[in-house]
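stage 2 :: seqdesign
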């Protein structure tokens, strides 16, 4: 199902919060990536985000054979939308049956890579970017109060960046009976890098810096993911921060994960000192 992909993913509690309510799930072979940012406080937000990413991963893995037989953007969007609906229903059911989870919800950004293309979806303010030929492009539009206010001309983009209301989303899984996900598809090109992130990254790291880090470290995605997270922490790390970075490779190209694994083992030996 998946194209030739190299993927690195990292989630971090940040520099201020005690608990991590973000969740990530990846299956590089199947071409599936999912990232969620939970709401509702410790336990509740953590549960909602984990339920969302695992539900998406499980559903899309189960549909892999069907998608291979019935290729096409419309079919993949249909499967992705149905999977998001089921995740939404599961989160709402859990909230109804356990008082600890009342009011929990989560944002979501997820994608399927297949047939030299990507089909992606998002709900809330978790984002999906693409870097092509060194240029960063935001593919999603935040479901947030601030984004709506900027679009209506009520406040400026600069005022939005300084606002304390950045976390007020207008759409999320687990809140309404029906969730309307944004769905889209596009062709991919060898060398494209796609970035999924929680708002803990883009609230604290400018697009220009994200572009620079991804472009300069596209050949070493684990290091790139680490630098993105560290940039957010260096700028305050006020929120959990999660990233998934996926690079489309030429068919037959070998991933570079071996070097990273050797480096991690070396660092671990140094740590045991």
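stage 2 :: out
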């Amino acid at each position: 199902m998946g194209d030739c992909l190299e993927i690195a993913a990292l989630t971090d509690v940040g520099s201020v919060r005690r608990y991590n309510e973000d969740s990530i799930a990846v299956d590089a072979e199947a071409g599936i990536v999912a990232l969620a940012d939970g709401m509702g406080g410790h336990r509740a937000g953590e549960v909602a985000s984990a339920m969302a990413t695992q539900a998406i991963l499980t559903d899309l893995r189960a549909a892999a054979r069907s998608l291979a037989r019935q290729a096409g953007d419309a079919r993949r969007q249909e499967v992705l939308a149905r999977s998001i609906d089921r995740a939404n229903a599961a989160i709402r059911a859990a909230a109804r049956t356990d008082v600890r989870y009342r009011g929990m919800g989560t944002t979501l950004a997820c994608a399927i890579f297949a047939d030299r293309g990507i089909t992606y979806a998002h709900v809330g303010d978790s984002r999906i970017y693409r870097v092509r030929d060194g240029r960063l492009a935001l593919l999603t539009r935040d479901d947030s109060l601030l984004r709506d206010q900027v679009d209506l001309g009520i406040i400026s983009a600069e005022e939005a960046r300084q606002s304390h209301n950045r976390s007020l989303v207008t759409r999320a899984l687990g809140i309404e009976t029906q969730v309307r996900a944004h769905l889209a598809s596009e062709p991919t090109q060898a060398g494209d890098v796609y970035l999924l992130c929680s708002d803990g990254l883009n609230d604290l790291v400018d697009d220009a810096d994200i572009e620079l880090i991804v472009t300069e470290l596209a050949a070493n995605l684990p290091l790139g993911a680490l630098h993105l997270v560290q940039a957010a922490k260096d700028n305050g790390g006020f929120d959990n921060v999660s990233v998934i970075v996926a690079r489309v490779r030429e068919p037959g190209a070998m991933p570079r994960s071996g070097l990273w694994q050797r480096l991690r083992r070396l660092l671990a030996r140094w740590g045991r000192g």
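stage 3 :: structure notes
- The two ends are 43 Å apart (CA to CA).
- Confidence is low (pLDDT under 50) at residues 254-260.
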